[in-house]
Protein RER1 (Drosophila erecta), 203 residues
Amino acid sequence: MMNEDSSAAGGGGVKKFFQRLSQTYQSTLDRSTPHTRMRWVFAGFLLLLFVLRIFIYQGWYIVCYALGIYHLNLFIAFLTPKIDPEFDPYSQDDEDEGPNLPTRSNEEFRPFIRRLPEFKFWLSVAKSTLIGLICTFFDVFNVPVFWPILVMYFITLFCITMKRQIKHMIKYKYLPFTRNKPRYQRVNDLAGSGPGSVAGNSK
């Protein structure tokens, strides 16, 4: 009985430890959400460490190639709208070229919603880079390959993928960035800039 009680207490302690660890991890992620620049600086630091280990020790090229392909897939998902305009039932056809996003001021404006949000994009990049960095400490992942072939294949794949993505953006007239989206004035600002205010300024 005492052994069973002690094993149950030990199992409960381990469970509480992992619950506390999970809560701390989630709390850290929640606090880092508004700090976009600092998050990407951290991800860039991890990526720099990974690249330095690859160049200094001249190995683990297959890990580097796999990480590059994974980051490319994440980047494409980051640039792609959540709802593909080609299959969007709320879009309207325009000259049989498929549905387009609003391009005129009198049309309804719908903000760009990414398939992969920025935070999940950063988290996936940071996690995968950290895993790749850890893999460089184990010789079992250091598979001998002719790295120039991997570089050429990755560049070719990158060019083909980005060309297809740019064609998709041009065809359906959307930009994956919200920096240049239209912004509307507030009602108070419009009232303050009415004829009365213009007359007052002219006196």
About this structure: Residues 36-86+114-176 form one domain.
